[in-house]
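Ligand: protoporphyrin IX containing FE. Inputs:
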Amino acid sequence: MNLWIPLGFVAVLLTGPHSPVAQSGAEQKQQSLYDRLGGLAPISVVVDDFINALVPDAVLNANPAIDAARKRVPAPYLKYHVTAMVCQATGGPCRYHGREMKESHAHLNITEPEWDRMVSLFKEVLAKNKVPAKETKELLEIVDSTKADIVVSRQK
Ligand code: HEM
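Predicted complex:
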């Protein structure tokens, strides 16, 4: 009896064509940020923590327009919209149906220091949730891409 079997065939038998071991480096790179973050459940937890940190923040609420809006707009509404936005922007299956960033923030007169404060709170939340460095960087880039539409005033 001939027991010789080509090695490549053995490798496929051991790992299976779709197992993580069989994935090439190129295939792994194609995984969306959404998938690397673990999908909608972990994203919704991060957004929940983020909005919970933003809404009561004294530095941001020193701006009367932000303070008035956070009292008027329900936090769950913001969590819903921001979760859908992050899900979509990271390559997930959700669709964001809220307003444009310019339209929804123009009346808040958000300054550069307030923006920096938001980014530092966001970084704290990502660290608390143990989001890895690469995914943190990509999320910060997504947030940064909205800055020009959100920061309208350069003065404090
Ligand atoms: C300093 C930075 C920010 C502050 C203080 C802030 C605060 C707020 C407030 C108070 C509202 C409610 C406005 C209103 O309806 O009157 C709002 C809406 C919203 N914000 Fe922000 N925001 C900031 C940055 C961001 C960023 C970076 C994102 C996403 C990348 C974002 C996503 C949204 C979304 C999706 C809404 C809801 C839009 C809608 O009502 O359709 N915000 N934000």
